[in-house]
């Protein structure tokens, strides 16, 4: 097809191993779905964020913003950063309203947010983190929420690293099993592809011009020989007739 046997063999090998890799990836997704590893990794990451406090973690998962993401008797495999931040701020008791003052100062805003956080039932380590994030936001609740979202995204990057490392090991094991089961020997596959490519190319190859010329010359020679033979027979037939005339 491409006029180069090496190119055709290379394309064939790429297609074969692409198919095998897709099979391994599909099997990995099935295994991960059965074991629910994504949900377990997410729960582990959230638990680490909340200072390994089981009560706070359960309160977060029971929050309407989070509980609506997964069916009962199950755990979510993904939580949006905004939903997490709003749920945490709600558990921390942080409200959007500021103290009753015409223009509350920065100190008043920080004190109000700090008092709301201290009055919550969250672990002390989480309260400390939230106070630092509030100080960085300069008392702005919108920026405070964005800081909480970035805090959550940073933890989820670590969770993604856990998932990727485990997925690599699973795909490696599945790849070995699939290669052995399919007997995917690169040398044998390349030899088979080369043989098939060479056979197909030989079947499509046109007849050489030299052979065609020789066949044409042979046909012409045969034609001339037959004409000569017919002429010889005519001469032999005429000679007896002449001899009879001379004798008479």
Explained architecture:
With 248 residues, the chain is an all-alpha fold. The protein has 2 domains: 5-188, no CATH class; 211-248. Helix content is 78%, strand content 0%. Helix 1 crosses helix 8 (141-182). The longest helix is centred in the middle third of the chain and has 42 residues, at 141-182. The protein starts with a helix and ends with a helix. The relative contact order is 0.10. Residues 98-102 and 241-245 have low confidence and may be disordered.
Give the topology.
Layout lengths: L4 H31 L1 H13 L4 H8 L2 H4 L13 H11 L14 H13 L5 H13 L4 H42 L3 H19 L4 H39 L1
Number of domains: 2
Distance between the termini: 80 Å
Element order: H for helix, E for strand = HHHHHHHHHH
The low-confidence runs, each spanning 5 or more residues with pLDDT under 50, are: 98-102, 241-245
Strand content: under 5%
What is the averaged pLDDT score?
78
User: How many E strands?
Assistant: 0
Instruction: Estimate the global geometry from the Cα principal axes.
Output: elongated
Coarse structural class: mainly alpha
- Give the helix tally: 10
CA radius of gyration: 43 Å
Share of helix among residues? Answer: over 70%
Biggest pleated sheet? none
């Amino acid at each position: 097809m491409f006029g180069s046997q090496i190119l055709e063999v290379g394309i064939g090998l790429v297609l074969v191993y692409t198919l095998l890799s897709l099979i391994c990836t599909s099997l990995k997704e099935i295994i991960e779905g059965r074991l629910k590893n994504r949900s377990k990794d997410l729960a582990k990451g959230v638990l680490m964020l909340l200072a390994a406090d089981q009560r706070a973690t359960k309160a977060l998962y029971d929050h309407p913003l989070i509980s609506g993401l997964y069916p009962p008797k199950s755990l979510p495999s993904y939580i949006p950063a905004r939903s997490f931040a709003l749920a945490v701020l709600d558990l921390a008791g942080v409200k959007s309203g500021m103290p009753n003052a015409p223009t509350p100062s920065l100190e008043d805003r920080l004190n109000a947010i700090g008092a709301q956080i201290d009055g919550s039932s969250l672990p002390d380590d989480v309260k400390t983190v939230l106070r630092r994030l509030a100080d960085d936001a300069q008392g702005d609740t919108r920026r405070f929420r964005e800081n909480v979202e970035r805090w959550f995204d940073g933890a989820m990057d670590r969770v993604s690293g856990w998932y990727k490392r485990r997925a690599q090991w699973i795909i490696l094991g599945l790849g070995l099993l699939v290669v052995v089961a399919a007997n995917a020997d690169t040398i044998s596959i390349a030899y088979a592809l080369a043989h098939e490519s060479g056979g197909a190319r030989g079947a499509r190859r046109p007849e050489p011009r030299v052979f065609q010329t020789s066949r044409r010359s042979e046909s012409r020679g045969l034609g001339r020989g037959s004409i000569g033979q017919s002429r010889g027979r005519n001469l032999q037939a005429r000679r007896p007739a002449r001899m009879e005339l001379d004798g008479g």
